[in-house]
Amino acid sequence: MHGQRGVGKSEIVLRYLVDYGHEYDTVQYFDAGSEEILQTQMEGFYDTLCQRNDTNLRKIIANDQNKCDAVLRWFQQEENCLIVYDNFDVSNGFDLHRYIPQASPAHRIIVGPNVHTASLSNFDMEIGPMTKEDAVNMFITLAALSHLSEVDTIYVSQIVDELDRTPFYIAFGARHLREMQKGPLQILQDIHTEKNNMRLKSSQLVMGDGSAMWSLAYERIKRQEVSFKLLVIFSFLHGFDIRSLL
Questions:
Q1: pLDDT tens track for 110-144
Q2: Cβ proximity of 200 and 168 under 8 Å
């Protein structure tokens, strides 16, 4: 399953687990955002199996002391299980095949922003932005807006377009409006102002947009001139995660 950041891929997987997780003997979620995190979580799952005193694992341990390899071999012997690999991005620089059990009957869901994720599975699903109507309704609901004028409704429509009609960004934008007690027009102006600031900042720095956005975010946070959450929205829209950089 692939699609841009914040479009709701993980939420869809979570909904699937809620609806169908009971049909599996084992459901295991791994964060594949980095190789280090994935290894740590697989080793944690190994420790969980040891605490269960799992019979199959005891047989495997006798021949394989590596925890990750032992977990993969355990999955190969399980008939009815589901493994979720979330947040996998090919740009993270590691081969996910290394952590997927081969010749295993296990169902696997691999989630990430890249179309290349499709090469790891027999089926591929691309998750796109929300419809305009759904995006507007979501923003209005999360921002707790009521009795909107026709003009404000137009502003909300423009806001969700600026936020790519993506649930994650819309949620941040709506929360920002609610917490700052601003109106739709003011939020739209904030978005335009910050986008222009980022373009200006990035044009002044040779190192590119990522460094420019980090620099802008850090300066603004220190002066407390703008909400950190709003900066996070723009960092994701432009493909950079300011939170990680900070």
A1: 998 876 666 677 788 888 888 999 999 999 999 98
A2: no
